[in-house]
Amino acid sequence: MDVRSPKEIKESTIKTAIFSNYFDDNFTEKATKQSDKSKPVYLICRSGNRSSKAYKILQEKGFDLINVSGGYNQWKKEN
C-alpha cells in the first residue's frame, strides 16, 4: 500500500500498489477497506516516515504489515 499523496503518485508509482493517502481524513477507513487481513501488507511512502505512522494505525486494526525501509526513494534505487 502506497500512502503517498496524489501529487507524489502522479510523479511515479509502483504498478501493483494500492493507494491510500495518509493525509486524507478517512485514511484509516479507506486503508482497512482496501486491504486483506489474511495477507501481509507492504507499506511504502516517500522516505519511510508516513508508512511508519500508517504501520502503527493499521497494526492496531489487526493487519500483518511490512514497512518498506527507506520508502519509495530506496525502492527506486534498488529497482
Mind telling me the CATH class? Alpha Beta
Q: Numbering strands along the chain, what is their spatial order in the largest sheet?
A: 1-2
- Distance N to C terminus: 17 Å
Outline type: globular
Tell me how many strands there are.
2
Please compute the radius of gyration using only Cα atoms: 12 Å
Largest sheet at a glance? 2 strands, parallel
Which architecture would the CATH scheme give at its second level? Answer: 3-Layer(aba) Sandwich
> Count of DSSP helices?
4
Structural class: mainly alpha
**Helix content estimate:** 40-55%
Low-pLDDT parts are none
- How many domains is the backbone divided into? 1
Domain Rhodanese: 2-79
InterPro entries: GlpE_sulfurtransferase, Rhodanese-like_dom, Rhodanese-like_dom_sf
Protein name: Rhodanese-like domain-containing protein
Would you give an account of this structure?
With 79 residues, the chain is mainly α. It has one domain (6-78): 3-Layer(aba) Sandwich (Oxidized Rhodanese, domain 1), CATH 3.40.250. The protein is globular. The longest helix has 11 residues, at 49-59. Strand 1 (41-43), helix 3 (49-59) and strand 2 (65-67) form a beta-alpha-beta unit. The chain has helices at 6-11, 27-34, 49-59, 71-78, and strands spanning 41-43, 65-67. Strands 1-2 form a two-stranded parallel ribbon. It contains 4 helices and 2 strands. It starts with 5 loop residues before the first helix and ends with a helix. 42% of the residues lie in helices and 8% in strands. This is Rhodanese-like domain-containing protein. It comes from Polaribacter cellanae. Pfam families: Rhodanese (PF00581). Residues 2-79 form the Rhodanese domain. InterPro entries: GlpE_sulfurtransferase, Rhodanese-like_dom, Rhodanese-like_dom_sf.
